[in-house]
């Protein structure tokens, strides 16, 4: 890269927007996927407007520089890991909530707005931004759209895509596209919004979004915590509870090894159970619906179902689920995986993971967004740094991916393909699937400059 | 077209699958958009399998023959109107429900299955297929996916896209693509399912789908019917009711002229109101939620809100809404339009339509899926045949489209662009939008043989 070319980029953007200092650049080179090493970026741009993004992309296009876009850098699949010589494009400073329209149940935001901030702003109008990844207080709306992220409330409200109405996207060559419908319904033209949702920075850069809000459920939530003798029993009870139509907001599972990790940390005695389910119900007749779920849990083998009497008690029950991840972090480095299967296959997948752990002597603790069939097996390993992932861990993770595919599931329910799963993607998509996706990629990014080497690499 | 080429098509398909008789062909040449004249097709194929569709498309691709795909032919925008010399591809006989998986809340169906049939099959498992276009007993699942159709229950369950998990699609050259995720969540690869949903036969031919089912709400629905002094008051009350979070399944509006048409037919006295709203609530605490809506209607100016005490009474109230369309059919030929606006703009749009009707002496009766901001102004006109649409009707419809766009709405909420609205589409998409959609179209159908002249023509 000639210095004159880089100077052109600097000149085309506001003062201070381009970072070239190597130490500062390093802090932009990776997301939270700490199992991956990053390449050295050429430079980083901290955009403050769609115009900034357009200028940066036009420059990259003219100079054939690959571009890695990042929101808040909270990704877990290496989607924002820097590749050598890339231009990092950070949207973290595009963090303004531009409008909330309470009668139309929409908000218009810049891509860098933090999910939790948007949800709190919506709450002031009696509304809610439904997408709630566990990272919601550190992850951005734009990043979550670019990965079509999930979350705990998905079991009721669906994935991020369901909350996105329209987008402003800067294309690979710097053109600015406004696409989608601000309205509830709209079928004019092809659904480009869906295409950009979950495209992991490979088709364009999302700079603004109009997202849907929903009425915030009233009243206290009712929370249930149920220990089961076995994981099989717990996951069978989840299926039975889901068939009741009780419309829970949460339906979470923790396996025995996760409970053991919490016990080891907190001195509790959860791991006498073979698995535990946490559920929550909000809104009309929450108590009545929670009671139906409690009955299904009893019938499924839970002798002692705790049901919260008030919000504070509910928070105490949820706090147990929140301990799952920090309890594991104490034990070593973590490779957090993410497969999704038909709900009826959850129990099979847990047996498969248990057998794998036993046969190979691996430490795998699993939590699941069980109502959605979304499993997070967390592989724990030792090593000088998190990037020292032992081969047997990668092999075991690969076996879990393939088993998920074999039973009708997918490689990734909510974290994305990123860098970590790109070598498995073709197995899921099939030959024609890969051909079609590559054709669409070429149509939108003919030079292949947007997040190269990620997702459909 | 050489006879030998057509003979190749006949030889590549099961006996009787290819129709060349002109009279029979004519019955395949149009959908329910009776305002449009159709061209004469070259031939029609009645497919019974994905293989049949693949053979037909491979032949069309090799011989440069345009292909117009049809499901049940219930479309209202001319999406399935034959173009001269095209091959009609009918999926009406691919009407098998292949599987219902009650634990996973999914069904696997061929594209020609009638929506109502699928919903009834799901009901046997305590489940529901949520998409419910008014045409649900005559329209097909595949056709509704290809138009991303709406329906009355959208206000609660969202559009058809939200119910589609994975698709089998035959591409323009005959390759067979399996795409999407059968699971609740899945973010591996680009969202091709969304791209095919609503693509109106221009990107590929959907032959099978895995669709989501939902638990069927229990208990009796509670139905409300509220006459308001003015349309403004009615639509204001709709907004107020939506903000309660009472989660209605229906929230429908009828304008005074629609009520007058019913009165003229049935001798009722509805048109003493300036507008009427029909709402329905199902599931947990339906009575309590209905009461909240009734209070909002009272507060909004409805003196006399009818609330059903039982299912039969609810049906009587809904029957009034069902009269809206047949009451208009008595008055002349109908051009049924379909725009969607932010809900806060509904009252403005009704005033605009009222003024247009008054200024130009036109008969326009409007119903709306008001909870979604989706208006159906129905233009009534005289003429020897439905295709004799007077110029002033097209002009008025165009003015309604442009006003909807001006206030942040869209040309079509649920019917699709088809033939009727293609000349307006570029106004909504903008230059970059058109370029991007054309690039995607070229990537998937480089010869431009799939439904040419429709949608993004």
UniProtKB/TrEMBL annotation, chains A, B:
Keywords of the record: FAD, Flavoprotein, Oxidoreductase
Q: Which InterPro entries match?
A: FAD-bd_oxidored_4_C (IPR004113), FAD-bd_PCMH (IPR016166), FAD-bd_PCMH-like_sf (IPR036318), FAD-bd_PCMH_sub2 (IPR016169), FAD-linked_Oxase-like_C (IPR016164), FAD-linked_OxidoTrans_Type4 (IPR051914), Oxid_FAD_bind_N (IPR006094), Vanillyl_alc_oxidase_C-sub2 (IPR016171)
PROSITE patterns under this entry? FAD_PCMH
Name any cofactors this protein relies on.
FAD
Q: Where does the record place the FAD-binding PCMH-type domain?
A: 37-216
Gene3D superfamilies from the xrefs? 3.30.465.10, 3.30.70.2740, Vanillyl-alcohol Oxidase, Chain A, domain 4 (1.10.45.10)
Flavoprotein: present as a keyword of the record?
yes
- Keyword Signal listed? The answer is no
Name of the protein: FAD-binding oxidoreductase
- Which species is this record about? Corynebacterium hansenii
């Amino acid at each position: 890269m000639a210095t004159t070319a880089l100077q052109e980029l600097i000149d085309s953007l506001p003062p201070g927007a381009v970072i070239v200092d190597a130490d500062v650049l390093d802090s932009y080179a990776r997301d939270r996927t700490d199992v991956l090493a990053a390449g050295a970026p050429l430079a980083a741009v901290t955009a403050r407007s769609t115009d900034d993004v357009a200028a940066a992309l036009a420059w990259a296009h003219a100079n054939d520089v690959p571009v890695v876009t990042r929101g808040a850098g909270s990704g877990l699949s290496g989607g924002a890991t820097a590749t050598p010589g890339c231009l990092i494009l950070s949207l973290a400073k595009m963090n303004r909530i531009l409008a909330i329209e309470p009668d139309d149940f929409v908000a218009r935001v810049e891509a860098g707005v933090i999910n939790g901030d948007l949800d709190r702003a919506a709450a002031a109008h009696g509304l809610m931004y439904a997408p709630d990844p566990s990272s919601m207080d550190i992850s951005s709306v734009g990043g979550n759209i670019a990965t079509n992220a999930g979350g705990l409330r998905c079991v009721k409200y669906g994935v991020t895509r369901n909350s996105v109405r329209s987008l402003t996207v800067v294309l690979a060559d710097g053109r600015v596209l406004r696409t989608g419908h601000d309205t509830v319904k709209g079928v004019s033209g092809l659904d480009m919004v869906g295409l950009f949702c979950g495209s992991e920075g490979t088709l364009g850069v999302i700079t603004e979004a109009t997202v849907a809000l929903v009425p915030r459920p009233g009243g206290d939530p009712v929370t249930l915590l149920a220990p089961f003798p076995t994981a099989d029993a717990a996951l069978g009870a989840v299926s039975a509870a889901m068939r009741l139509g009780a419309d829970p907001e949460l339906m979470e599972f923790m396996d025995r090894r996760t409970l053991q990790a919490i016990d080891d940390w907190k001195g509790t005695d959860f791991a006498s159970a073979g698995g535990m389910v946490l559920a929550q119900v909000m809104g009309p007749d929450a108590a009545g619906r929670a009671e139906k779920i409690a009955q299904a849990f009893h019938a499924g083998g839970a002798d002692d179902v705790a049901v919260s009497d008030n919000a504070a008690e509910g928070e105490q029950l949820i706090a147990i689920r929140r301990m799952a991840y920090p309890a594991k972090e104490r034990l070593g480095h973590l490779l957090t995986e993410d497969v999704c299967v038909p709900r009826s296959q959850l129990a099979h997948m847990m047996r498969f993971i248990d057998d794998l752990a036993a046969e190979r002597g691996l430490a795998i603790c699993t939590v699941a967004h069980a109502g959605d069939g979304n499993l997070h097996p967390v592989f724990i390993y030792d090593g000088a740094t998190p990037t020292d992932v032992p081969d047997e861990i990668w092999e075991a993770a690969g076996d879990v991916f393939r088993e998920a595919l074999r039973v009708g599931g997918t490689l990734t329910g909510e974290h994305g393909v990123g860098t970590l799963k790109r070598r498995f993607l073709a197995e899921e998509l099939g030959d024609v699937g890969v051909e079609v996706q590559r054709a669409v990629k070429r149509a939108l990014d003919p030079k292949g400059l947007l997040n190269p080497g990620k997702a459909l690499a």
